[in-house]
Structure formats: C-alpha cells, structure tokens
Write a structure and sequence with these properties.
The protein has about 80 residues and is of the alpha+beta class. The chain is about 40% helix and about 30% strand.
C-alpha cells in the first residue's frame, strides 16, 4: 500500500481545487474538473466514490495532468 491507497474523493477534490481546478459539472458518479494553465485547458474526470482507487488516481488522473504523487500529497 502506497501513500495514495486510501484517499477520499472529497479530499482529492479539495486538493485539485488547491491546484487550480474547478468543478464544472457532474454526470452520475463522475465529476468533471477543469483548469486553464499556460493557455491550455486541462480536464480531469474524478469518479465520485467514497475512496479513489490508487491506480485510478496515480495512472489515470495524476499522469494526465503531469502531477507527481509528492505534489498531490502536499496539496492534501
């Protein structure tokens, strides 16, 4: 189990908001977030479950926005 093994979705959403993302919509159990960075729009989809799976967070979301685990943990 790594550092990201038991991150609650509410905490992850707050961390992404600290990183400049804003919730723009929700459809079912998926929350869409967006930020403008260097003239480009970055979008992520966060599943709205109680706890995020480590692989979804690390390999899906963090990799898509180029954020390291350490940066994310710092934002928590």
């Amino acid at each position: 189990m790594g550092k990201l093994a038991s991150v609650r979705v509410k905490d992850a959403i707050k961390a992404f908001e600290r990183a400049g993302f804003a919730v723009i919509s929700q459809k079912g159990s998926h929350i869409k977030m967006r930020r403008l960075r260097d003239g480009k729009t970055e979008m992520i989809i966060v599943p709205n479950h109680k706890v995020l799976k480590e692989g979804t967070l690390r390999k899906g979301i963090l990799r898509a926005i180029g954020m390291s685990e350490e940066e994310f943990v710092h934002l928590l």
